[in-house]
Amino acid sequence: MCGIVGYIGNKKAKPILINGLLRLEYRGYDSAGIATIESNGIKNVKNKGRVAELENNSEINELEGTIGIGHTRWATHGKPSEINSHPHMDNKKTTAVVHNGIIENYIELREFLSKNGYEFLSETDTEVIPNLIHYYYEKTSKSGKLDFLKAIKETVNQLKGSFAIEVLNNDFKNEMFVLRKDSPMVIGKGIEENYISSDIPAILSFTKDFYLLNDFEFAVLGRDYIEFYDSNLEKFNKEIKNITWDMSSAEKGNYADFMLKEIFEQPKSIRETIGSRVVKNARIQIDELDISKEYLQNVDRIYIVACGTAMYAGMTAKKILEKYCRIQTEVDIASEFRYRNPLITDRTLCIYISQSGETADTIAALNLAKEHNAKTIAISNVIGSSIVREADYSLYTHAGPEIAVASTKAYTSQIVLLAILGIYFAEVLGVSYNELEELKEEILEVPTKIEEVLKKADQIKQFAKKIANEKDVFFIGRGIDYTVALEGALKLKEISYIHSEAYAAGELKHGPIALIENGITVIGVMTDNLLSSKTISNLQEVITRGAKTFIVTNQNLENVSFNEIINIPQISSYISPILSVVPLQLLAYYISKEKGLDVDKPRNLAKSVTVE
Ligand code: M6R
User: Fold this and answer.
1) Most CB within 10 Å of its CB: which of 177, 221, 271, 488?
2) Res. 179: pLDDT tops 90
3) Relative to the CA of 308, which ligand 1 atom is closest?
4) Per-residue pLDDT at 542 exceeds 70
5) Which of 415, 430, 453 is a domain's end point?
6) Residues facing residue 577 across a β-bridge
7) Is 604 within a domain?
8) H/E segment holding residue 178
């Protein structure tokens, strides 16, 4: 989705803004632009296409200013074009704005402004913002920045929807204005320079000291100060947060792509997520939670709610919560949950999972639980993200920044954290099973076992070459393996554009087997001792019909003939997806490479889906 950067300091803003925009490319976009304050006023340069095209835009060489804003646009209202790109300016060219989010009532605001003599050049919802700011600013005595802040405040009072906005104005050549509502925005503090971004990694090379803006908080950035104003325009102080992610975690290093790097980082990201939460022969420690036995005994059900890969991670936790905590657990897609009037009471516990913490549907689903006074827990990878701020409790996966659009290390970190949470609840409830003690030990062994699986990369690469030109690929599994099949199919379609579907293996005969024909590839996942023989039978049925088979397993399959078998280490079936997904991640990656596609930035997709 769209990305925002901003800079104010003593250096030329242009290269810093371009650097930030390049680091935001992974979010997905189709046009880019920057505006700086020059000696003769604001200068705005933008175009359709990549940031590289913006860098080559001849007009950009004229930008000398040391204060500026930048944007990558993912088209929502109006096609990708220069005119629709941000920054947008008001009719009088006094104010420049970049905006992330959606203004739902922009049509009526356009009508209002049109009646007041304003004209619109673009098809965007955003263009109403600089014009409204101009309209309201003209009504003040224009005697200082408080008047300009009042104009921004009046403007945002009229806006319905979500927005993070950055504003420049010709009257304030040494200041930059920002505000957010339901769309991420962070402010980076430097020495005699300050930064803005929608995403921490974009400015991580410049600073590690961040302020996290809350909804309807305004910030005014000067070169050596940052002022915060609440929604009544009263000044207040904000706590600074130090981000521990290191810069190398947001760079490719020696890897060809972020996705490959992130797949190989999984032993580390799992270790970091486990941290001190799991220690042999001791109870699980989750310092962030304060949940009593009485509360858990009274919980009527648990909902785990998320989108995409995060939802598939959520599916893995149902078994542990139902078996050991004896609490009915349902896993929901956030965009469905929010509209289906779910049975939420004040005894319901809702767990929300989101790598970015900014997914619009997940946030809305969380707010729904709050309306019903249910307790909420957020699991996110991004410090200070929106779901973290909204939930009663927040747990972080410490996977480090995930840049590739296709989620890999965040997914495995989410699974490990959910398993830890399940054991924690069981311990709070006072249940004790040897199996849970063993599971703790297994969790501690996961990083080393992933290292073993990663050694299979070459074998997987060779198989990927054989199937890179397929049109359809099917994934099957049972129980926990079915959840991995879903994730494997999502990964493959996201980055290779091959049509891929996952089925619970037992469902094949109820319809999907009609699609099996000579030469088609079926990928089977088998890690569950109790269910594997059943999946083998299903695989034999597809082999009989001419399918090629790629198997990920920790079972002994000596008597069955498959085309390719990736053996993975033994592991408890509660957490087996952490290992069994790795070959599927690598397969998707190598197929995408074989097809010459942009692995990290697949078409039509965005890293952070901040609109519904
Ligand atoms: O940031 P989130 O975890 O909330 O994102 C949810 C999905 O959009 C995300 O997992 C998506 O499915 C990924 N592209 C999967 O690789």
Assistant:
1) 488
2) yes
3) 12
4) yes
5) 453
6) none
7) no
8) strand 176-181
